[in-house]
Every structure is written in C-alpha cells, then in structure tokens.
Design brief:
With 512 residues, the protein is α/β, with parallel strands linked by helices. It folds into two domains: 2-197 and 465-497, Glycogen Phosphorylase B (Rossmann fold); 207-458, Rossmann fold (3-Layer(aba) Sandwich), CATH 3.40.50. The protein is built from 20 helices and 15 strands. A seven-stranded parallel sheet has the order 3-2-1-4-5-6-7, sandwiched between helices. α1 links the parallel β1 and β2. α9 (267-280) runs parallel beside α15 (410-422). It is globular. The protein starts with a strand and ends in an 11-residue tail after the last helix.
C-alpha cells in the first residue's frame, strides 16, 4: 500500500510533529521486508523539519513533494479564481508521477477543514470522487473561535467541507471531537479515535549542568523551585494564570515560560505581560527556551515540576510528555481532553479545571457586560444571532461570588495578579477559595515519584510508538478496503459543530 500525507507546511509545530511521530509509529510495526512507499505533499515551507527522518525509517520509503497550492492562502495572494481545480490537477499529476494509483493508495490529509486554504476542501472532495481512499484527520476546527477561517470557507461554508462517502473516513484526537463529528452525522463505521503518538523522550542532560546554566542566564538559584511551562505564549495558553500561580506558589519558586509568540498579532499582548511582570517583579522568567537560552531538554532537566495553564488544546501533548521526563504536572485541567488519558489509567492528581477568584474584585456587572459584548461580536463574525438565555449562562459562570480566572480578559487578569501579589490577605483568600492549590504548588519531583512511574507505564502501554503504530495501521487498512464511489454527500448536520463550540458556557473572553 502507498500512503500520501497532506499538510500545508512542514514548519516546526504541532501537526508537523504529529506527522513525524506517525511515520515513526508506523515504521515500528511494519515489516522492513515489505516496505511501504510514503510521500508527504506540502506547500514548500519546511523550517524545523527533521531532515534525518527518512534515514531513520526501516520499513517506509519516504519522499517529500512540494506543491505550492497546498500552502496557506496568504502565501499565494495571486491565486486564480478556480484554485481548487488547479490544486486538484497538481495533486493528481503528482500522485500519478509517483505511481500512487487510487486503488493502491490512501490519502491521509491533516486539518483540511481549518480554513487556511479555501481550495483544499473541494480539492479533497474531488480526490475522493477519483477513487482514492481518504483519512481526514482533524486537529483543529475553524468552528472553534476561528471565525475568520470559517468565513473564508464560504458563507455558509460549502457543502464539501466535510464530504461523506464510503471511502472517506475521519480521525479525531479525542472523544470530544469524536462526539462532535458523530452528532453532525459522520457514520460510525467511518469515524475513528486516533490519539497522537507519544514517542520516548531523549535522554536529558545532567540536572546539575542544566541548573547551572539556568542560574547563569536567568538568575534562578540552585535552591529555587523551578516550575516550567513549555509553551509558545499565545493567548489561549493563558499566560496570566501562570503568572498568578507564580505569585501564589511557595517562596523561592520561579515560573519559567519557554517561547515568545511567532504570530505578530499575538506579540502586543505578550509584551504587555512581560512589562507587567517586570513592573510587579513577579518570580517568573520569559523565553527560557529561546535561541541561545536553554534547550528544551535542558529546561526539562532543570525543572522541579511542569506547569500548564492552557485553556484549549487539540490533544494536550504536554499532559503526557511531562511524566516521561520524571516531572509532575501541575496546573489547569481540560476535562474534555484529559478524560481520554484518565480512561487509559493516567493519573492527573495535580490538575484542576478552574482557578476561582472573587468576582467582586472585577465587578459582576462589568464582567457580565464584557462577556456579552465579546460574545455578540463572535456570533456576528460567525454570522449567527444571539440565542435566548445568554445572560443566565453568564451568571452561571459566576457562582457563589466567584469566577474562573480563565474566564477573564488580560487587563482583568492583571488586576487580580496585582492584588494577590501586593496583598497577603488577598493571596490567602484565593488559596482558600481553591482547596488543595497551596499543596499542589508545593509538589516536586521527589513527592511524585510513584505517580510519575505509574503514568509513564500507562503512557507507554497506550500512547507510545508501537501501540500507536498498530492503531494507525489498522485504520489505514480499513480505509484502503473501503468501497469506492464517485458520489459524495454533504454532512447531514454541520451546524451542530458550530453550535457546540459557541455554547456560551464554553465561551472565554481570552479566546476572542
């Protein structure tokens, strides 16, 4: 069987890393005496791609093919009016040149419906009509607070966005996404759960060496507790909460955040956080993983615990990788993502789904009005009108005079941090409002050895390369065996996906 993998680019990032790990996972279970041919079709950008990957594969003969029409639309501002036809023609010519015939080839397409390339959904649909078996893996949804992406797909998005056919299968990262697609009408026999592979962590450098470098470059003493947040500091990663936790943690605790955002739209808010942290003299360090600072491995070796405060994840890789480094994971839980990990036996003892603060410190009416304005704006950008009962939903987000810190927008978060950092009574009140938080922020490697060992075993059993490879192989073989037809049907209830993401109880100001 031949495998053609599609993605917009191979730049360093989440989906690119998934593609690499999936190839390693497949390679771990395929027979080297019966190798597969695989090709990655991508737009041309490949900053950070692992150029040594092809040489590591024993049972896969890998080819990389640049097709500019697969890249983001903003990389090709002069694209013609029938970009989908041009893309389809380029792809079919490429596949024919590789001798990837439809009856012997599965196309594994990543994030086709994200709205980064308006031609891709229709191009994918045409490939299904050509007789190819397709596996459409969705990592992120345009419906998930990406209104600009969504509207670029059409108004409403065209009916081939989620094509339905016996040969078109869907892969979801978690049960939440699986449930969304199921409710929208994807047939059960063509809808699959495909969590990301979690490869072993390379051997870390000596802790003493990493700590010495951390002290030299960031003035973090050898006796300080170092909580590492391995993060690209974009808004949904909830940087403010990491800074709040630095002010709530025991004395001589330092929070380190690894990387600045790459997106220039995100930069101003990030710079405001750096400025605020400097003004308040918070016990945190920024860009500890930037070029010239500590490497990722050095940061992991130096850390006493790993931190996460993210408000939205597709898979949540850090919630598994942390344990493989011997480090306990502290911070914010995302139950709709982590429920899958818990089902496989992973213990997340030091995560909590909310961090409650007194709503009076912001003002209930001020917060309600801010939520209502922002929510209406998001609805308008999606072309939706406001449903009934929104005010009651926002009131429900402020029970007992408290609100989740993650529901606040950045200026409000800074108010809370300033108050907690400068007023010991306010600090004590937040700790009391969140039972167990004080003990959680004191957890270190030595305290967590048994949980770390248990979780490493569970992750190896269910998410490491071999079980992941077997899971992906079964799925690709199922797609390959699917009947072919040139007719396509639209998704029966596509609006249910958007309805779920726009539920006011899921709404957060920081996602706008």
């Amino acid at each position: 069987m031949n495998l053609a993998i599609f993605h917009y680019h191979l730049n360093r990032g989440g989906v690119t890393r998934v593609v690499e790990n999936q190839l390693l996972a497949l390679d771990a279970v395929l027979d080297p005496n019966r190798p597969w041919r695989a090709a990655i079709l991508f737009g041309g950008r490949r900053e950070g791609w692992n150029e040594g990957l092809a040489g590591r594969l024993r049972a896969i003969r890998l080819t990389l093919v640049e097709l500019p029409g697969l890249d983001y639309d903003d990389q090709w501002p002069t694209a013609g009016p029938d970009q989908a036809a041009a893309l389809h023609a380029d792809v079919t010519t490429t596949l024919a040149g590789l001798d990837f015939a439809p009856d012997r080839t599965v196309l594994h397409v990543h994030n086709h419906s994200l709205g980064k390339n308006r031609a891709l959904p229709e191009g994918v649909a045409r490939l299904a009509q050509d007789g190819f078996g397709l596996l459409l893996q969705i990592h992120d949804f345009a419906e998930d607070f990406r209104p600009d992406n969504y509207r670029r797909l059409g108004d409403p998005p065209h009916e081939t966005l989620y094509p339905q056919s016996p040969s078109v299968h869907y892969a979801a990262l978690n049960h939440r996404d699986h449930g969304l697609l199921e409710a929208a009408g994807v047939a059960a026999d063509r809808l699959h759960l495909l969590p990301n592979p979690v490869p072993p962590i390379d051997e870390l450098p000596p802790r003493e060496t990493a700590r010495a470098k951390l002290e030299r470059q960031f003035n973090v003493g050898p006796d300080a507790a170092y909580l590492l947040y391995p993060v690209r500091c974009i808004r949904r990663k909830n940087v403010g909460e990491a800074l709040l936790l630095s002010s709530l943690a025991p004395p001589n605790t330092i929070v380190g955040l690894t990387l600045a955002p790459l997106n220039p739209v995100e930069a101003p808010i990030y710079e405001e956080w750096k400025h605020a942290a400097s003004e308040m003299r918070l016990p945190c360090r920024f860009e500890v993983g930037a070029p010239g600072a500590l490497s990722f491995a050095e940061n992991l070796a130096a850390a006493d615990a790993t931190l996460t405060t993210s408000l939205a994840e597709g898979f949540g890789m850090v919630m598994l990788e942390s344990w493989l480094t011997g480090s306990p994971l502290l911070g914010r839980d995302l139950p709709e993502v982590t429920a899958d990990f818990i089902q496989y036996g992973v213990r997340l003892d030091w995560l909590r789904p909310a961090l409650r603060v007194p709503v009076e410190w912001i003002g209930r009416e001020i917060l309600r009005q801010a939520m209502a304005r922002a929510y209406r704006d998001v609805l308008a950008r999606y072309g939706r009108s406001e449903p009934a009962g929104v005010e009651k939903a926002f009131d429900a987000k402020m029970p007992d005079g408290r609100v989740d810190f993650g529901d606040l927008v950045e200026p409000m978060q800074r108010q809370i941090i300033q108050r907690v950092w400068t007023d010991s009574a306010a600090r004590r009140r937040v700790l009391d409002e969140n039972p167990g938080l004080e003990e959680t922020l004191a957890v270190r490697r030595a305290d967590a050895a048994d949980v770390v060992r248990h979780n490493a075993q569970a992750i190896d059993a269910h998410f490491s390369l071999e079980p992941s490879g077997r899971r992906l192989l079964r799925l690709l073989e199922q797609v390959a065996a699917s009947p072919r037809t040139s007719s396509l049907d639209p998704l029966p209830y596509p609006e249910r996906i958007l309805d779920a993401f726009l539920d006011p109880m899921r709404f957060r100001l920081i996602r706008t």
